[in-house]
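Q: Could you fold this chain for me?
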Amino acid sequence: MKADRGRIAAAVQRLAPEIKLVLFHGYDDSAARELADRLARQFDGAEAFAAATLDKDPQALAAAATSVSMFGDRTLIRVDGAGDDTLAAVDAVLAGPGGNPVIVVAGGLKKTSKLLTRVEGDAHALAWQVPEARAGDIPGVVTEAGADFGVTPGRGAARALFEACGADRAVLRRELEKLALYIDATPAEPKAFELADLAAVGADLGDAEVGELVAGVAGGDAAATDLQLARLAAQNVAAIVIVRAVQRRFFTLLDLRAAVDGGASARSAVEGARPPVFWKEKDALTAELGKWRTPMVRAALTRLLGVERAIKRSGSAGEVLAAQALLGLATQASGRR
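A: Sure. Below is the predicted structure, expressed as structure tokens.
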């Protein structure tokens, strides 16, 4: 069904058990992903699918949705980069008995989209077009995201931070997390951040500060990974920020591997990627596709999601858990055991 704002807000807090699938779509892709991330926090387990892989095996999504955990809890199933070519997989989920909820994240969909029509027409599904943030919405967006970390924007700080993050909600959350650490804020003891705090933590760095670490892990350079982990720890970059940056790289690899598995060369897959790959990353991603087969990428994402959950529960052990996982993945990619 076509959801309204109130129903989606409730679902993000607690998804009703009768809902089999939630579709987030819109032209602000980062806002759709961020909303999906918030809903996903209800669940301890998660399994990721690349939309491109489901075109060849649409029943795989329904199989994951109906699988039963040995512990009896529900696992979240997530599909990023969906479109009308995902219709068969979504239809199989909605036609089935349900079980594990499925979150589907798509870009901008037309009103005539078959995927959108199918989801909006099913009583056991929710479809929500995530609105793009307008200028007047920015303080609210930053304040809402900051509440998870105990930080609120001071005068002029919300707009400055949002623009520094390029309006990317994932980067915004990462910077808010850094700010919380810097000003010693928590949800129980919230504090305001000012423009001076943004300058102090380098909130305009985007993903650049973790780029070398991500390249080391995905490229199989354990020594570089170890060196970058030490550097980021000295800069007080939170472990969960690092893990999520590596997750984003592996989601990209999962999408590109689908093209390679379909017969494309690694280079043509990178050249044809949508959204386009930044030119400086093309050679690295091409090489990484030769190191990571699809089952390996999916296993890596499962491990990274598990580390993220463990970090949330373990307090001060976060850096150790992240380092063990990332060094292990780098070693795996290098071919050494």
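A (continued): The domain at 208-334 is CATH 1.20.272.10 (Zinc Finger, Delta Prime; domain 3).
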